[in-house]
Amino acid sequence: MIAMNKIVLVVFFFQAIVFSVLAQQPRTSIALNNLKQALLKANSGDTLVIKNGTYLDLRTTLSYSGEGKVVIVAEEPGKVIVSGKSTIIFEKSKNIIFQGVLFKHITNPSAVIIFNSNEIEISNNYFYKCGSNPFHTIVKIQENSSRNRVCNNTFEGSKAMSVVVKLESENDFNNTHNEICGNIFYDIQSVSSIYKGQSNGMEAIQVGQGANSQAKLFTKIYHNRFEKVFGDGAEIISIKSSNNEIFKNVFLDNKSGITLRIGDNVAVFDNYIENTSQGIRVFGSGHKIYNNYMLNCDVAIQIPSTDISFEDKVTSSGYRQQNNIHVYDNTIVGGVGRGILIGDNKRDFNPINLRIKGNSIVVEQGSKGMVLSDEVSSTEIAFSKNIIYHMIEEKKPEFRTGFKNNAIRYQPIRSEGDTSTKLGVKRNKGGTTYPTMPDCPGWRCPSF
User: Fold this and answer.
1) Helices in 135-267 by DSSP H: which ranges?
2) How many CB atoms lie within 10 A of CB 111?
3) What is the mean pLDDT of residues 14-28?
4) How much is the pLDDT for 413?
């Protein structure tokens, strides 16, 4: 028995030496243009290292469908540079993690395409000034692609739409449960400053398009940072599909906003939105806007009039009437315009069946807490337990009559500089902590 134990110990000791030696061996790097063949031979748990260098005008299609994860990673983060007319396509694949690549000045319609693939992760990459058309898509998810993650990347100076989930054909109806998280979208200029005579496009994120907006995509957009984004001046995030969530993101110094453009049942919550001109614009039915903290937005929450009734057939153009919208527990501070706008007398259909509850609005000089169009029926809106804080020396902000006494409560603050009151209003209501800036490794941090 003693001899047998010695043999077992020797075997274990020998195995430990072998594993140690293998772990210390350098990983073989592969040129990006040879990655396709290497991936065909890969096994679950393998790590494929892309050799440092600049890869110009390279289009490659990668496929892997093993049950375990395969990691594709740059030899050194940022030292693998893909540029020019280049596109990397993940087709009929699953379980791939792709990391560490710098995509620079890509002029193809897309830099990365996830096509008919599941559980692909595009993470820790840098997309620098990519795009050559405001309607092109830098990272695109399409054709039966679900449970993919585009996370912890940097998109700086994008000249096209940065991340897009397609919804153009029936095959796109299965582009579900994808996640866009932890990314930094930085310094996206106005469309007109890059493309003369054009003003639309260049959204940081777009989920869905056109007449198929009733499709339920269940996309989650969270923990992203949007800073100095202009684009088309209206849509940092453009939602044109149903049953999505936007939460715990940070928005700073943007000349645009979040738009629920077409589609239903989208939740926008727990976001920090500062100096972002358009705030949150809402169209469609069944949306919930709650527990957001909004500081110095021109218009914080907008529910304007529309040109299409919610009962009419969905089309790819126009604005769909709002129905069954719940706006609650938001904190809105300052700004030069309006806290909550309901209707605007610009189009034929005004919002109906709204619930506006428990919102706190700090009104500063020249701004308005709530603006309600004369054409909006008081019977269509249930107001309750909202508070508007205003300066003592100013008269209470004007608001239409016809609502219950507890619809709006006015509470004075001592001075415009009383930041402890203004910024502390329900800042952590219900124990919720608003998101902090997402961290990024040094190689992909823009110069904020």
Assistant:
1) 191-194
2) 27
3) 42
4) 66
Q: Among 219, 234, 263, which residue terminates a domain?
A: 263
Place of tokens 């990024």: 440
SS3 content of the chain, % helix, strand, coil (to 5): 15, 40, 45
**DSSP-assigned letter for residue 3:** H
Radius of gyration over every alpha carbon of the chain, rounded to an integer in angstroms: 25
How do 126-128 and 250-254 pair as beta strands? unpaired
- Give the domain-ending residue among 235, 263, 291: 263
Q: What's the one-letter identity of residue 102? A: L
Q: Kindly state whether residue 11 falls inside one of the protein's structural domains.
A: no
In this predicted structure, what is the pLDDT of residue 80?
A: 97
Q: Are 373 and 234 within one domain?
A: no
Whole-angstrom distance, CA of residue 231 vs CA of residue 25: 47
Q: How do beta strands 323-328 and 288-290 pair?
A: parallel
From residue 225, alpha-carbon distances to 148, 219, 300 in Å are 20, 17, 18
Task: For residues 16-45, give the mean pLDDT.
Answer: 72
CB 430 within 8 A of CB 401: no
CA torsion through residues 94, 99, 101, 105, sign: positive
**pLDDT tens by residue, 254-273:** 999 999 999 999 999 999 99
pLDDT in tens, 124-150: 999 999 999 999 999 999 999 999 999
Q: What CA–CA distance (Å, rounded) separates 109 from 104?
A: 14
Domain that holds residue 294: 283-438
Same domain? 225 vs 288: no
Do residues 225 and 90 both lie within one domain? Answer: yes
Whether the model pTM is above 0.85: yes
Residue 31 resides in a domain = no
| H/E element, 340 | strand 338-342
Q: What is the 3-state secondary structure (H, E, C) of 8-55?
A: HHHHHHHHHHHHHHHHHCCCCEECHHHHHHHHHCCCCCCEEEECCEEE
Q: Which residues pair with 91 in a beta bridge?
A: 115
Answer for the pair 410, 390: CB distance below 8 angstroms, yes or no. Answer: yes
